[in-house]
Amino acid sequence: SNGDGKIDGKVSEREVKLETSVSTPLQFRPGRTEVFEFERIRAGTPVEQRPDLGIGRGDVRVDGRQVHVTVHSLGHVGTDTGVAVLEDARGREIARIEVPAMDAPSHLQPQTTLVALPLPAGDRRGLRVRVALADEGEEVTRLNNRVDVL
Questions:
Q1: 20 DSSP assignment
Q2: Of 112, 126, 57, nearest to 82 (Cα)?
Q3: Helix (H) or strand (E) run with residue 70 in it
Q4: At the N or C end, where does the chain have fewer CB atoms within 10 A?
Q5: For 96-114, what is each residue's pLDDT tens digit?
Q6: Largest separation between any pair of C-alpha atoms in the chain
Q7: In sequence order, what are the residues at sequence separation of 6 or more whose Cβ sits closer than 8 angstroms to the Cβ of residue 65?
């Protein structure tokens, strides 16, 4: 408040994960100078040592009452077990299935697995598929982890 660029008064602290492709929500109030201070508590896994599950538009296919999903291993190392989740427009889980562990792609050979999720009856607008490592572990990026179904 006094213009010295340092935090004045009440300080609120929280721990956030700063990671490539993950947003960090901040609030900027009008008419005020906001000061944010970040401190690294611990380093994450180097990107070149992370697995990466991924799906794209061409990897989700609706067939009758199922959604078939081709899940890719795209990271520098193989993946542990993952999950594929069918969600509604609000992010509520409708169905879930395990994605088996996969090797890392090597020698220009893709590593994929196919899983199927049941589709609900009725309105299917806004449905999407999300994939993730079962333990929500670090990945190269999470930008390739969601796809709209229809």
A1: T
A2: 112
A3: strand 66-73
A4: N
A5: 999 999 999 988 889 999 9
A6: 64
A7: 118, 119, 121
